[in-house]
Amino acid sequence: MTYRLAIYDMDRTVTFSGTYTGFLIHVAAHMAPWRLIFLPLIPFVMLAYVVKLISRQTLKETNQWLMIGGRVDRAKLQSHIESYADKVMAKNVRAGALEQIAKDRAAGYRLVLATASYRLYVEAIARRLGFDTVIATDHVGQDLPYVRAKIAGENCYDTGKLRMIKAWMAAEAIDRSQAHIRAYSDHVSDAPMLEFADEAFASNPHPPLAKLAAERGWTRVDWS
């Protein structure tokens, strides 16, 4: 038996721009507008990450704590998650990505969205896009009635994303030797995932990935 998997990154691959900061601002504006006073601090937190004073995981946790809070009722968040997903679908999804997703589905591929963004809101977007599975960054206590500004396990990024893909495949009893994998990404941090695939697509790649794709012979696609 051959399993067909089409694994997509989300931010700037399926979407035109990143979704995480937009999600934080959307929720803050609707749930606690006073938290928008912290918005000017976010570039400084990003700078701390760029100069390696904090990890990428701490960057995400800090921004969430600033804009949403350290502990938020999950039920109260849900309507804002859904409205944000609608906003992403309306204004921030590449038509070319939608076409390719439809082609992969028609060809019998199981559609997997693998992203560093939080499962908290990614699942709502993935549902609208028609994905079968989400592999994403999780919060501590996914089963709790509240959301903490704390990442559980790994940030789904770079080699961590590949480890999470492999763990999901193992849990699904999908043997790599019996799988044909397509992978799509815009960013060089997904090189481990692209190398793991049978067919690698550099989708609207930034310059470092475009260079690597040319060296590795990966297919470049530019979606509008």
UniProtKB/TrEMBL annotation:
InterPro entries: HAD-like_SerB, HAD-like_sf, HAD_sf. It comes from the Bacteria. The chain crosses the membrane at residues 32-51. Keywords: Hydrolase, Magnesium, Membrane, Metal-binding, Transmembrane, Transmembrane helix. Gene3D superfamilies: HAD superfamily/HAD-like (3.40.50.1000), SG protein - dephosphorylation function (1.20.1440.100). One of its GO terms (molecular function) is hydrolase activity. This is HAD superfamily hydrolase (TIGR01490 family). The lineage of its organism: Bacteria, Pseudomonadati, Pseudomonadota, Alphaproteobacteria, Sphingomonadales.
